[in-house]
Amino acid sequence: MSSALTDLFRYPIVQAPMAGGASCPQLAAAVSAAGGLGFLAAGYKTPEAMYEEIKQLRGLTGHPFGVNVFMPQPATADPAAVEVYAEQLSGEASWYETPLGDPDSGNDDAYEVKLAILLEDPVPVVSFTFGCPSRAVLEAFAGAGTRTVVTVTSPAEAQAAERAGADAVCVQGIEAGGHQGTHFDDPHADCTAAGLGLLSLITLVREAVPLPVIAAGGLMRGAQIAAVLAAGADAAQLGTAFLVCHESAAHPLHKRAMTDSLFTRTELTRAFTGRPARGLVNRFMREHGRYAPAAYPQLQHLTAGLRRAAAKVGDPQGMSLWAGQGHRLAREMPAGRLVEVLAAEMDNALGSVPGTWTGAAS
């Protein structure tokens, strides 16, 4: 395994940065302390809130951790389509007694300010989602001693990350919960019919670029981690598996929904945010998914209040219940214990002596 990542963790287990609530300093600290790599999610947070979470995390652990940043989005949304969708959601606003949000609240998620903070007070790892930073940005982080990871969903995106100077790529398969980290969301594409499965994608990316690979997508057991390592990955990133942990800040309704018999499957949808994201199929997704335009982050802003209101009144049918395809395998336990269980399962599948993992073959 490349030294770009190997000294960051004892086990090749990365806790996915889950924007919107689940990721928090307590969860990241527990994962890192147990030998994995914990992550904070800067997405949807103000720069000040991001900085405060980093301070909290540093107070909880001295182990390496990462921070994930969303890339600014191009102004490609059709305002007329967003307005039509807003009209369709007027009934939801009445039902939850809350106004729709302003779709024009901004496209950049305070990207430049967050970069300035992370460069002024560097963290061990910064990852990027929804695009690839410029070479100048990645060189600046390299100069600050920060490792960089770019989320990719295709060999072409991995090649773009290599050209820009990323230290590693997070290869996200179609099985993954939450947003697909594509660099461009084709407004004419059917979001439910696109994307590659993780095992195929790992092989394609490994043959396209020499960068270390973090594999993400539906992973819930140590044997699956062993499988992606055998396929050529250097580490595995898990989100849904950590979402139900005791330290996770996910809403209790979201946690319970992972194994609730009412929610039997996941789908990719633009219903909540305008970008393809995998979640548990609920009423909101069924009623609005087919009509949602490709308009991120406009729909994210538009529906944010609705989702908060649904959570407040205890209605999971109106919430964005992001989940990977393996959600039924979720195990509620402390995050540190989950890292230990996953590592033991991985060692057993690899046939190695517990605690002796030394990296995937490159």
From TrEMBL:
Nitronate monooxygenase that uses molecular oxygen to catalyze the oxidative denitrification of alkyl nitronates. Acts on propionate 3-nitronate (P3N), the presumed physiological substrate. Probably functions in the detoxification of P3N, a metabolic poison produced by plants and fungi as a defense mechanism. This is Probable nitronate monooxygenase. It comes from the Bacteria. It comes from Streptomyces palmae. It holds the Pfam family NMO. Keywords: Detoxification, Flavoprotein, FMN, Monooxygenase, Nucleotide-binding, Oxidoreductase. Belongs to the nitronate monooxygenase family. NMO class I subfamily. Its cofactor is FMN. The keyword Oxidoreductase applies. GO terms for biological process: response to toxic substance. PANTHER family: NITRONATE MONOOXYGENASE-RELATED. The keyword Iron-sulfur does not apply. It catalyses: 3 propionate 3-nitronate + 3 O2 + H2O = 3 3-oxopropanoate + 2 nitrate + nitrite + H2O2 + 3 H(+). GO terms for molecular function: nitronate monooxygenase activity; nucleotide binding.
